[in-house]
Amino acid sequence: MDRALPLSLRDGALSGSESREESLALAETLVPSTADPEQVREAARIFAEQSRPERAIETLRQGILTHPRQADLLVLLGDLLSRSGAHDEAGLYLRQAVELEPQSADALFRLGLHHARRGHAEAARASYETAVRLDPAHVRAWVNLGLTRSDLGERKGAIDALRRAVNLDPACSDARSNLGTLYAEWGMAEEALEEFRRAVTLDPDSSEAHFNLGWALLAEDELSQAEATLLESVRLDPGNVEGLYALALLHQRTGAYARAAAELKQAIEKRPDEARLHYYLGVAYNSMEAVDQAILALETAARLNPEDPRIHRLLGVAFDKKELPSRAREAYRRAAALNG
Predict the structure, then answer these.
(1) What would the pLDDT profile of 221-237 be if each residue is shown by its tens digit?
(2) Residue 237: in which H helix or E strand, if any?
């Protein structure tokens, strides 16, 4: 999940009846009105929503020249710069905003997002904790605090934060999906399934929500429900490699090896350097007695991840089937050496 949640320059959304051209034209009419920070915010919001982040950044820069102490403009500019990868400059604007308004929970939340994007988990946690202390009803800050605590290995604290988010907003699908993931990691399968089902109900168009539920159902051997849910995840996002991978595992388990191979080949087109995908493609081909294809897939997997004993062991099996005893012995020897 993208833990840097969608840009929210202002509550509310553009009218669905407005075309992209009309929206951008409106934004351009607002840009010269730098005397009004609200119009600067509105113009930047439109540019960002219409996939013009560079124009949004330029607009906010212009506005800040006129309003250098307008903390919310600094926050929005810092957030956009952080998303674009200009991390050093983003940090300057976000810290300046916090200095101007140290009681702003949103400024601290956005600073936390920035730290998280940079992989600075402890700094992100500190920012989120300050944000929820200032505003105990800040749902997004509780969600991201839970995620960051989880990254730091603080599972109980992570669950507590995500439960707080769910209590504040029972309709927050992000909180429920991530709470379900933590429950699953703790072996609380029933609780995890409940949260994943609620997340799908709340956000039926979310490929990720369907994937989480499908993966949990697969772990519980609820194969029919898992298949339907994972197929919906892939339908919603055809580029969902994890969904294709999960479907392939399911179809291998049910003996539908040709379907598994087809799904794995789709996944490999999107991520050709992932050894696990080539390994399981080798498993599928080996089960289909397509030995030549199995060897090709497994040799690719071994090249990508030469330290995985499973790959070499299955290569040995495939070489045995091809009556290549010396190559089989070498593969088995390699597998045994890696197993210690």
Answers:
(1) 999 999 999 999 999 99
(2) none
